[in-house]
Specification:
By secondary structure, the chain is of the alpha/beta class. Helix content is about 40%, strand content about 20%. Strands 10-9-6-7-8-11 form a six-stranded mixed beta sheet, with helices on both faces. A five-stranded mixed beta sheet has the order 3-2-1-4-5, with helices on both faces. The radius of gyration is 20 Å and the shape is globular. The model has no long low-confidence stretch (mean pLDDT about 95). The chain binds 5'-O-[(R)-(carboxyoxy)(hydroxy)phosphoryl]adenosine (KG4) and zinc ion. Zinc ion binds next to helix 4.
Length: about 325
């Protein structure tokens, strides 16, 4: 079995997964949304302190599995350095205590493997990663063959929902509240579609966010209309850029992962795209869309099977990591 730890942002999570069957045997999470909602976003120092309290409790609950553990997988990048550090320190302690090797897992790769919990992987596949920290189009051809088609120049998709929710006084995280409010709204606020005149495959959310700020300041619109118009434009931008990438790489499989992949309007718009272009659409089960250790365990198994271990003296936290850029024009 693999024991996995996730603490890259505001969720402390521990999972145990059987290596051969990929069966999830234990999975628990303590979220900090309530604590951060007071501030309209994640406060790193507070998050780090809460991880330091939560992780030992979660690890203690998984104690009965200790005799069967073969390796400890932990998210070491990317994320908030002070929160990643809490998970990495806990993993190092366990590695020394149980005398088992450490496996460093990239959180974004973890999100891709949220698709394959208790399943075999599917490849090659194009991936749209939409979370609080990232908005990326990737080509995936196995755990060590991931390249980047395009990324955001400024805010991420999820972050823009958080910022708009903050401007509207709706609390944190913004995604679910905006999605709910948007249901009763009309598309009456005109907002710009970013980067439509450039030929690149890139994202940008700062323009939409500023246009929303001006609409709020004008006092002319209802909150639900702002939420509906914002959500529609934010998703239209994802569709616009994804279409470009799909035309270029012609994927058979297209996946949406990350916390914002829980958005049902986003899912239904991409369902339409999948019919138009004839690809199979994949997304994680709802419970695995937001940050969790089950996806880290699943990615950890792939790394374990390839013998990718990291010595505990060398395992470092990396707040930022880059993927190589995709070159070929087909998957
Ligand atoms: O993947 P995740 O749990 O954490 C990071 O790795 O960042 O993603 C959290 C992000 C937050 O910005 C949150 O507002 C957004 O995902 N999110 C959503 C929805 N649910 C969560 N965004 C849009 N619509 C949703 N339903
Ligand atoms: Zn995440």
């Amino acid at each position: 079995m693999i024991l996995a730890i996730e603490s890259s942002c505001d969720d402390s999570s521990v999972a145990i997964m059987e290596i051969k069957s990929k069966k999830l045997l234990f999975h628990q999470k303590i979220s900090q949304e309530k604590e951060h909602s007071l501030y309209g976003g994640v406060v790193p120092e507070l998050a780090s302190r809460l991880h330091a309290e939560a992780l030992p409790k979660l690890i203690d609950k998984a104690k009965s599995f200790f005799p069967s553990i073969k390796a400890i997988a932990v998210t070491n990048a990317p994320g908030l350095s002070v929160t990643l550090q809490e998970g990495v320190m806990a993993a190092k302690g366990l590695s020394i205590g149980l005398n088992k090797p450490l496996i460093a897992v990239n959180h974004l790769i973890g999100h891709i493997y949220s698709l394959f919990i208790e399943k075999e992987e599917i490849k090659p596949m194009m991936v749209l990663l939409v979370s609080g920290g990232h908005t990326k189009l990737l080509n995936f051809n196995g755990i060590d063959k991931v390249c980047e088609i395009g990324s955001t120049l400024d805010d991420s998709f999820g972050e823009s929902f958080d910022k708009v929710a903050k401007m509207l006084g709706l609390g944190y995280p913004g995604g679910p509240v905006i999605e709910k409010l948007a249901k009763s709204g009309e598309f009456s606020v005109e907002l710009p579609l970013p980067l439509r005149n450039s030929s690149d495959i890139k994202f940008s959310y700062s323009g939409i966010k500023n246009a929303v700020r001006l609409a709020i300041e004008s006092g002319q619109y209802k909150k639900e209309d702002i939420a509906a118009s914002f959500q529609q434009k934010a998703i239209e931008h994802l569709l616009f850029m994804s279409k470009r990438a799909i035309k270029k790489y012609k994927p058979k499989y297209f996946a949406i992962v990350g916390g914002a992949s829980a958005n049902l309007v986003l899912r239904s718009e991409f369902e339409k795209l999948s019919k138009e272009f004839g690809f199979s659409l994949l997304y994680p089960k709802m419970e695995f869309t937001s940050d969790n250790a089950a996806m880290i365990a699943r990615a950890g198994i792939e790394l374990y099977n390839r013998g990718y271990f990291t010595n505990y003296k060398e395992l470092k936290v990396m707040p930022r990591v880059e993927f190589e850029k995709c070159k070929e024009s087909r998957l």
